[in-house]
Every structure is written in C-alpha cells, then in structure tokens.
Amino acid sequence: xxxxxxxxxxxxxxxxxxxxxxxxxxxxxxxxxxxxxxxxxxxxxxxxxxxxxxxxxxxxxxxxxxxxxxxxxxxxxxxxxxxxxxxxxxxxxxxxxxxxxxxxxxxxxxxxxxxxxxxxxxxxxxxxxxxxxxxxxxxxxxxxxxxxxxxxxxxxxxxxxxxxxxxxxxxxxxxxxxxxxxxxxxxxxxxxxxxxxxxxxxxxxxxxxxxxxxxxxxxxxxxxxxxxxxxxxxxxxxxxxxxxxxxxxxxxxxxxxxxxxxxxxxxxxxxxxxxxxxxxxxxxxxxxxxxxxxxxxxxxxxxxxxxxxxxxxxxxxxxxxxxxxxxxxxxxxxxxxxxxxxxxxxxxxxxxxxxxxxxxxxxxxxxxxxxxxxxxxxxxxxxxxxxxxxxxxxxxxxxxxxxxxxxxxxxxxxxxxxxxxxxxxxxxxxxxxxxxxxxxxxxxxxxxxxxxxxxxxxxxxxxxxxxxxxxxxxxxxxxxxxxxxxxxxxxxxxxxxxxxxxxxxxxxxxxxxxxxxxxxxxxxxxxxxxxxxxxxxxxxxxxxxxxxxxxxxxxxxxxxxxxxxxxxxxxxxxxxxxxxxxxxxxxxxxxxxxxxxxxxxxxxxxxxxxxxxxxxxxxxxxxxxxxxxxxxxxxxxxxxxxxxxxxxxxxxxxxxxxxxxxxxxxxxxxxxxxxxxxxxxxxxxxxxxxxxxxxxxxxxxxxxxxxxxxxxxxxxxxxxxxx
Length: 723
Prior knowledge:
- By secondary structure, the protein is α/β, with parallel strands linked by helices.
- The protein is about 65% helix and about 10% strand.
- The chain is elongated and about 195 Å long.
- Keywords: Cell membrane, Coiled coil, Membrane, Transmembrane, Transmembrane helix.
- InterPro entries: Bact_polysacc_biosynth/exp, LPS_length_determ_N, P-loop_NTPase.
C-alpha cells in the first residue's frame, strides 16, 4: 500500500525541482509560440436528407432508418469527406492557386523556390490534369513523387490538411459541419467550400452511376425473365393444340357432374326396378294358377300392341339416356308412355276376363307396373353404358392434367420472377429520377482571427511539465524499495527495530562535544536522546546479560559509530564499560581511540583482566589488525572463560564484530555474546544476498534483539516519533 504522506514528503524535498522545471518549460514555450501567426476558422453546413422526413416524402420508396443505420450513414459520409480522394483534390486546388497566383496562400517553400519557370509550368499542368481527372499521384513514378514532395513542402499534403480539418455531425441533426483552420482567412473559406462542392459532385456522380448500373442490370434481367415466361407459355399452348386440350379443369368438372348425375339416376332406376318387381310379385300372389292362366291366355292378343309400343319406348329411353337427358327425347318418352296407358285401357274395355271382374283393377295395375319395371331395367343398362363411357373419357384426361399442371407451375414461377424483377426495375428507374439529397446550405466565409492560443499553450506547457515531474517522482517513489525509516525496516525484515539515528551534519564529528550535556546544538541534543532511547531498549532486552555484540550486514553501515556512542551513553548512567574492537579486518575503534590494550595480549595471557580494569569509566580493548579470527587467538573454551572473567570486572561489554558478509569471523563472536544487535544504513534495499544474513539473525531467536537504523533522513520519520 502506498504511503501518501511519505510521497508528499518526497515532493516537499524536491520542491525546487517542481518549481524550476515547469518555469523553464513555460519560458521555452513562450519564446517558441510568441511569433506564431494568427489562425482563421471557416465552416460550412451540408444537409444530408438522411433524417429529414420532408425530403423523404419526395421519394416514396425511402423508409425510416434505425438510429444505428443513421449513425452508420453519417459515419460513411464523414469518412468519405475525409478520404484521400477528397484531400487530393484539395491539395491540387491549393497548389494550383499558389503556382498561378501572385498572392499565394503560404510563403513558398525551398522546394517551390528551387523550381525554374519550365518546371513550375510543368507542375502546374500536371496538377490541373490530376484535378480534372480526379486521379491520385503515383509514388512509383519519379515525376509524380516529386509533385508529392512539393505538396508536402507547402504543407498541402493529406496529413497536413487533415490536422486542420474538422468534420462532424451536429448532435442528432441532419447536418454535417465542415471546418478548416489556417493562417489565411480566404484560404480557410476556399478550402471548406471547395471540399463541400467536390464531395457533393463526387457523391452525386457515384450514386447516379450505381443507380444506372442497377437500372441496366434489372433491364437485362427482366428481358431474360420475359423471354423465359414467353417460352413456357408457347410450350403449353403447343401441347394443348397437339393433344386437343381446351380447358382440363372445366372438362373434368363437367365429366364429374355428368358421372354424378348418371350415378344418381342409376341408383333411382335400380330402386324403381326392385320396387316394381316386388309389387308385381305381390299381385301375382293374389291370383290362383287357374286365374293366372286364364288371364295370360286372354291377354296374349292384347299384349302384342303393348309390346310393340313398349319396344319403341325402350328405344327412346336409351336415346334419352345417351343424349344426356335431352328434354325433347323426354317428351317423346312421355308420349309413348301415354300411348301404352291408352292401349291398356282399351284392353280393359273388351272384358277379357271372366264375369268375375273383381280382380280387373289388379290386372290393370300389374300391366302398368310391368311396363315401368321394363323401363327401369332398360334405363339401368343404358345408364351403366354411359357411365363407362364417361369414366373412360375422364381417364384420358389424367396424363394431360399432369403435363399441364407441371407447365402451369413453371409458368407461375417464371411469372413471379419476372414480376419481381420488373418491380425492382421500375423502382430503380424511379429512384434514378430523384436527385441526390446532399446540398450545401451554408457557404463558408472568411472569418476573423481566432482567439490566440499562445497563453493557453504556455499555461498548458507549465501544467504538463509539472504533472510530468510529479509523475516521474511518483514512479521513482513507487519503484523505490529502499529502507528509509524504522517502520519500513521492521516490515521488510519482520524483526523488531530498537531505534534509529539521524544523519548528523558536518564533515567531522567530535563525540566529546556531542555528549556534553550542557553544550551543543539542537541536532546534538536530539541525537543524544535517540542514543539514550536505544540504550534503554537494549537494557530492557539484555535480561542480566553483559556482552552486547554489534554487527552489520556489510561494511560501512555505522556499527563503529554506534558502538562508540553506546559506550558514552552507558558511561552516563554510571556503567563501567568495556569496548572491544573485534573487527580484525578494519580496526576502526582501535584507530579512533588509539587503544593501548589489545585483545591479542589478553588472550595470550600477557595481559590480565585486572590490568585493564583502570579507574576510567570506559576501557577500550583494541586489536592489531591482522587478518585473523577470534578462535585463532584462543580456543572457544578459553575465550568463553576469559569473557567470564571480564564480566566480573565490567557492567557492560560492547563488542564490535565484523560484518556478516565475512562469514565465520562475525559468527565466532556471536557464540560468546549474550545479545546481538545489527546496524543498517538507511537508503539501501534488501537484496537477495542480504536475505540469507537476515534469516541467520532470525535463527538466533532470543539472542538477536533487533536493528538500529543509521543515518535516517529527518523527513522520513513522523514528527511524533522524533526525539
């Protein structure tokens, strides 16, 4: 987590940088923009007709577009206005003006001035040709590449024009605004008007070409579809003529109707025949055999005439059925029926029966029914033959129906396709007759100079440079993983920190002056308080121990300085102090105090503990600086024994050990120490090789009591934590 208060302190330490750099930037920007020319802005308006419903009413085929479609339409138009084709036309127009006018829009470039009269005339001619033909320059052609370089030198090239050109849609309106800014008012107006006019002409030409292509395409396609439709119709016509087919649907309907009628009459004839037969049998049952023979014998002569007439009636009935029940034949059949009835009546008048005439009515009724029965049976056969004939005709229509239906289906498809293409052709022709809705409704005019942006650029440069400086400091602060205060050291090592020491000013330090209680500066007083605080924390952790080892992770961390000052601090609380210089590689304490007693003499028994126990509060035991280790002077048991003797004489024994990067030389001293503290200089990071030493200190458990952070910047410690 970022400590913002610490970052603000970093900014405070670099306050002069944050002031000087923006100030210099502002001054440089002012001199750069003070001679910048004024700019002139001209704009024009183009009505598109995309969302204008009054314009759409002229075109009945124009529908309502969705918002996404509207946005896409406007996006396409704006992209087309800013396209390279349009910018090329602008470039040609501007360079043609400057080449042919005595008052060019811009000061001629070096490239333009280097052209002779023939080259200028040649360039002017080519630019006019490209402008009229709307052609781009080919960079593969050396001559045209030179023309492109000329445009670039005058800042009339595509990229330069696009930087000053603004094209946008005004909100959700139907209008597109075109703006151009330049150092010449007439140039700005000319660029905007020329761009709008060229764009509308190009867009109109493109739309008309596309519409004409659509009309031509649908025209040819409609002709093809019409030929296909005519071909299908002719094929169907030829088939009907060849097979004598008029109208299959009407013919089949007529046959079905006739068949249905004949079937109805057949059913009626069958029903009548059965009924008459049953009635005749019932009448016959009422006569005994003698009567029946008498009647039949008496009726022989009379029936000859009836039979003849009935044969005629049967013939007429057959003709009536076969003719489809024509009314005139029906009248003839009815007439013959009346003749038969008359003949039967005359037979009754001749008294052909016996005097017992009570059965005469039955005989007459039987004769009538017999005639009706014969007629029903006769018509039944005729109807059956006619039904067979009609069914045969119906079966003959089935193959023709299949062929005709297939042809009619193909004709329907061809007709639908033709009508669809014809509708599209008519729609295309209708649309081609309408004019394009794009029009310039506002002409660009030369305007006044725009408000100067010089002061704004100067202010922006100062603000941006200031923000940039803050950003750089923040990045450095964020990436900075150095230890700057006790809290960061404790968080990084996960071990306690006993205290810290400020960085003291001055090239040389006089310890006696620092520890004079009634003299010295405020800085010295604060430093003494910090040392006394560290001394108190050490006393709290010693728990009766007397040997305090001071080491560091590397050289030049300040362990010598801390050892000397701790000795002074203990002396002020009436402690008898023994200060041992255990760093054989760099005996800094020995050199600083010019020691007279040496640890080598003490361990080889040439010096006794009573000899070094003088009346002085602080006694120093130096070394001769040979590159040796502690156990090279004496065995571990002897060293511990001698230290036990020293503990009887001194209240506190402070040992400065070598740095931990000397490996065993430092760790041998740890074996004889009661407690260990480690000094680290502020402003350095804990790199990978130091983590092994930190883990070693953590492994000492209760023996290692904490860190002392040296040379801490006063601005890195909160005020409430300062002494």
